[in-house]
Write a structure and sequence with these properties.
This protein is about 35% helix and about 15% strand. A hairpin with a 2-residue loop joins strand 1 and strand 2. The relative contact order is 0.09.
Length: about 675
Amino acid sequence: MKFVRLFEPIIINRLFIQNRMVMPAMGLHYTKDYSFPERMQHFYRRRAHGGVGLMILGPVAFDDRGAAPAMPGIFDDRALEAFRIFLDELHRDTQTKIAIQLFHMGRNAPSPLYTGKPALAPSALKSRLTGLVPQAMTEEDIREVQAGFARGAKRAKDAGFDMVEIIACTGYLVSQFLSPLTNLRTDAYGGPIENRMRFGLEVIRAVRAAVGPDFPIGIRVAGNDFMEGGHTNAESALFCREAERAGIDAINVTGGWHESTTPQLTSHVPPAAYVYLARGIKEQVGVPVFASNRLGDPVVAEQVLRSGAADMVGWARPLLADPDLPRKVRDGQAALAIRCISCNQGCFDGIFTGQGVTCLVNPTVGREGELKIVPARMPKKIYVAGGGPAGMEFAWVAALRGHDVTLFEKEAQLGGQVDLAAAPPGKAEFLNVARSLEARMRAAGVKVRRKSPLTAAKVKRGKPDLVAVATGSRPITVGVPGADKPHVVDAWEVLRGNVAHIGRRIVVIGGNAVGCETADFLVSADCPKPENAAFLLVHGAEDPQRLRELLCRSLRQVTVVEMVERMAANVGPSTRWVLMKDLQMKGVALRAGTKLVAITDTDVVVETAAGRESIPADTVVMAVGARSVNDLARRIEQDGTPVVTLGDAASPRNMIDAIREGFEAALTV
């Protein structure tokens, strides 16, 4: 496809933007004191130089009662100098336009922990995120917060920002006023939708008065709260129509609240699934509308723009994965792009754990100022054993630095365990990890030997200066009676499609990520594919309730047995709930705190706090972990060749750590 619409300019108010790609604001957790530190500046600088049209910096706090110290603040004029210097540089060196998102969390603000004052909200309803009860806002509070938005906007303009954006989504303050779930007021700000809109519209008018008629103002809205009884797409469109009349120049549409149980950002969400939310709003307004969520594939983004459903597309996580994505697409190098796989392992899990945002496929995220690929002082001949993520990452970076790199892979295809990660429902995009790494290796000049395992003899003959051993891991077995029976199979073989006959009663041993995702894989095999269900629905072949039953009910009875008390304990918090919801909807029995004792021809014998019991099983699937495969490293080291051991070959770990290790090791050779 020829990318045309992505690279058409657009004007918002009087602001000229070079293309239709926008990087929405995203929490980074790169500060702890409301400052704008070098780490954050390096992050944004890198993306501006990648060619994105509009970059929205934030969220940014305009007071300490509606925010937290993990974000920059623009409380007073003293905060402007760092922003001003940074913006002057980017305006000088790039064509990217820079907006700022003014942020107020309302009842979800953890302000009592930092200020000793309760959070402010339309009504005194406990936050599901903090567990704290906010203070219902008085009219004086309302006026002060609105003035705070206005002061923040004026400071942003004075600092040199090109645009301001007001947050009115995700269950934060403005959307709390909009929603009947969180707005129980009986005054002029509560009750019918006309009253619930009042606070947000007054914020817009206050900001417009502060910045003047020619300065662009945007607003980020939830296209649908995805909360039962909450704000719908029709109500959101109504608010946006009034927001345009109040002075808004652009509308940035995202999905629902953080509290919603509708997945919005994981790989389970189909690409462009929520573009209809932007379309529903665009039908009601005349200003540019941005679409967001799962639009990282440039082909999909181009199609969305061509459809007319939106005027710009939001690339947040796609620009974490590859800051140069706009430039690569423009220059015909889309095949070399590092594709976001919507795993959430580094970005959202990094926020939940307080470590700051990182990225599975891009180890430089959050470390842009310290991790640089520079030419090697003394090029070496390097062999790499293993074509999994760690080995491939090491190979392409080392080759890019000027080393002579040959990668040996015993299988016909590259990727290692990537195919296992991609097999469960909604995980197919993990295959892009291997595809992207293979393309980058090819471009960097790595020589690849498939069906050719590296041996000590090959090392002795080739005389490399260094061998990187990334030979991965293999499943472990458990020594219980019956574990060697013919109906006992390994989860890896199941996920790879190597087990042709699987019974209707299945017990999965091991409730870690692999075990739970294998259960999801098994219980989904006989269910209709979503696209088939959509076809049947559109043509009236089945009613919606029957289709839901078909999608969620398998002929198989699957039980997952796990010794510890928490299922999928090694799955990140931003995706674990989606996996658990999927398993529960499909009727998988989750047996935590249950120990495997024995396997018979017809049953699995387990032990719980209540005693022993038997679970009928036609097939038993083992998912109890893996052990390193690193014999080669020991043999090569004995012969005197320098060795670096990477990924699972060092010890079993997750993909984000394996790729990071490969990258970092390649910078040191």
